[in-house]
Automatic annotation (TrEMBL):
Taxonomic classification: Bacteria, Bacillati, Actinomycetota, Actinomycetes, Kitasatosporales
Residue span, CBS domain: 390-448
UniProt keywords, alphabetically: CBS domain
Taxonomic superkingdom: Bacteria
Entry-linked Pfam families: CBS (PF00571), MgtE_N (PF03448)
Signal peptide: none
Protein's name in the database: Magnesium transporter MgtE N-terminal domain-containing protein
PANTHER family in alphabetical order: MAGNESIUM TRANSPORTER MGTE (PTHR43773)
Length: 455
């Protein structure tokens, strides 16, 4: 009895699975059948209700930067003789792969004039670069797919496959057939057609563009390196300078140099100013002296002076790769007071590994790690913490003119996470973090950059 019940249950599960599989296949087939290839539409005839040809499709117009998740098609650009006329979407009856039929016998074939927010999909998006936010990669639009939705036609996806490019190069009868093997949902795409619109300078952030802000710096660096010049500069305008600066610190030196040269001088200066000082100095070293000075002149005076000071140290030395941001305290300061001051420097947390204890003349007494500071009770003074840590030996320090290899050896020997750079009087002037040493000794840092187009 139990065996027959088990067999019946198993049979029912298999039957339900087959039913679900058939339904899923039917849904996929229905979606595929409803797709219309933009590349296949171009050059196809537009016919009236009698089946007579009115003209040939030149382009499809869509409202790309509106509030809708999928951009609606607003009309067609049609060649009628030597004219390029506009046919509004409400006059179009049906989109098909090989033609478009009209729903109205009366047409006002006006000369096409782009309206705010409208984009010519073929001219401005097809074969152009875009960012696949979900896949974190730069792709090229091999085809765009349109589909009916709620009584209108909308742009639903971007085909980025090599097979689609080959299909477009093949016989004419193949070109209108969608081949959606690698389709990116439009809501996951950040396109670069904005400069083609005649709309207002400020447009609402689409969900996909907002998602760019969630990319990690290394991911955004890969995207920036893969983009062309125009698209790269446009992407920079979409993001907060601080977010971009973090990505610039992850870029290959040659790519970063090109980006700063491509940008307008005021934009390049703003980006450099947002970078951490040691990373900014690395970027400035790669520029010609004239370019470097013009950029420094656009920075706030205090920031420019700080960077000029770092540039006086030779590349490959401790001073050349240190960050000048050193947090100091006095013996009488309490642990709770220092912790409160550190909380106000959250934006620089990546540069803060310890707190330097100095005397009244600024000379180094001790280097107190954040762990020792964290576990200390509130009334404990920094001097008391320093007295306790003295049993582990003096703080690890290095001369600013020492080679970075020497700094690396000291870092390993001291088993510390950072080194203080001190001047001839023993005053801390900078700090070298472990990743600063790695950046200098292993500039590639093991990162692999793949050009993703056609891969």
């Amino acid at each position: 009895m139990a065996t027959s019940t088990l067999l019946a249950t198993t049979s029912a599960r298999l039957r339900d699975r087959r039913v679900r599989s058939v339904r899923r296949a039917g849904a996929v087939q229905a979606v595929r059948a409803s797709l219309v290839s933009l590349a296949g539409l171009v050059g196809r005839p537009v016919t009236n209700q009698s089946g007579e040809e009115v003209g040939r499709i030149v382009d499809v117009v869509a409202r790309l930067y509106g509030s809708e998740p999928y951009p609606p098609v607003t009309g067609l650009v049609v060649s009628v003789g030597r004219r390029r006329a506009f046919i509004a979407a409400d006059k179009v009856g049906r989109f098909a792969g090989d033609r478009v039929s009209l729903s109205s016998a009366r047409l006002d074939l006006r000369e096409f004039e782009r309206r705010p927010g409208e984009v010519l999909l073929c001219r401005d998006v097809l074969d152009h670069q875009l960012v696949d936010v979900d896949g974190v990669q730069v792709s090229r639009a091999a085809d765009l797919y349109l589909a009916p939705q709620g009584g209108r036609t909308v742009l639903v996806g971007v085909d980025v496959s090599l097979s689609t490019l080959l299909r477009r190069l093949g016989p004419r009868r193949w070109q209108a057939r969608p081949t959606p093997e690698r389709v990116v949902d439009w809501q996951s795409v950040a396109p670069f057609a904005e400069q083609a619109t005649d709309g207002p300078a400020q447009v609402h952030l689409r969900a996909s563009r907002a998602a760019l802000h969630r990319l990690r710096p290394a991911e955004l660096a890969d995207v920036l390196e893969d983009l062309g010049r125009i698209e790269r500069q446009q992407l920079l305008t979409w993001l907060a300078p601080a977010h971009v600066a973090d990505a610039l610190e992850e870029m290959e030196p040659a790519e970063l140099e090109n980006l700063l040269r491509e940008a307008a001088p005021e934009d390049a200066a703003r980006l450099v100013d947002e970078m951490e000082p040691d990373e900014a100095v690395d970027a400035l070293r790669d520029l010609d002296p004239g370019e470097r000075e013009r950029l420094l002149q656009r920075l706030p005076q205090s920031d420019a002076a700080e960077l000029r000071g770092l540039l006086t140290y030779r590349e490959g030395t401790a001073g050349g790769c240190m960050t000048p941001r050193v947090i100091t305290a006095r013996r009488t300061d309490t642990a709770s007071a220092v912790r409160s001051s550190l909380a106000e420097l959250a934006e620089h947390r990546a540069e803060i590994a310890a707190v330097a204890l100095v005397d009244d003349h600024g000379r180094l007494l001790a280097d107190i790690s954040l762990f020792d500071l964290t576990v200390a009770e509130e009334p404990t003074t920094m001097g008391e913490i320093a007295d306790w840590t003295a049993q582990f030996g003096p703080p690890a320090t290095v001369d600013p003119h020492a080679r970075i290899a020497e700094a690396a050896e000291l870092l390993v020997a001291s088993r510390a996470s950072s080194l203080l750079v001190v001047d001839g009087q023993g005053r801390p002037i900078g700090r070298i973090l472990a990743d600063d040493v790695l950046d200098t000794l292993l500039p590639e840092r093991g990162r692999l950059h793949f050009r993703r187009f056609l891969q």
